[in-house]
Design brief:
It is built from 6 helices and 10 strands. It has one domain (5-66, 77-90, 135-196): VC0467-like (3-Layer(aba) Sandwich), CATH 3.40.1740. Helices cover 18% and strands 30% of the residues.
Amino acid sequence: MKFDPFKISISELNNKTAQKGLVLVSEPFMGDDYFKRSVVYLVEHNKEGTIGFMLNKPMEIKVKDLFSDFPDFDSTVFLGGPVQAQNLFYIHTRGDIIRNSIPLGNGLFWDGDFEDLKIQIGAGKIQADEIKFFLGYSGWGETQLDEEIKENSWFIQTASKDQILKENASNLWKEIIQSAERRVSLMADFPEDPSLN
């Protein structure tokens, strides 16, 4: 039976490792400033490593500001991660009109032909709530992520399509933590600085 991350129960999550389509939620007191209180959507996880995008780290830049020939499209760019931070990536729902899009499940796609993307946006066929842009990605080699999960640096959770594409994602970490099983959801109100607890 094929694994569907969008139809998995919380009890089943306890027995799962990282997989494409799931999200990683950083533990409340993670000391890494880069990944502190982050939610990372996994688009690839195999024996070579893992690729994901931070969903809740908006930058003060719009995608139309990155390219001189990009259509007038008012969509925020998110910091996807520290790897290839000068490259643009995108997750979207329009695999039907963007060639070479990589299916992720639940009607979501990763990247695709950039010229198609510009043409379809220019023609008004793609709306801001159907796509999310990232500079860079988050990457882990071979067993690196599995080790971090064993050390409780990350919780594995699910996220809806709307949560993944959400532009106003400032409360996404708390929102996803609150929907987790009780031992995790209790952490939603922990302060970032443990000395304040």
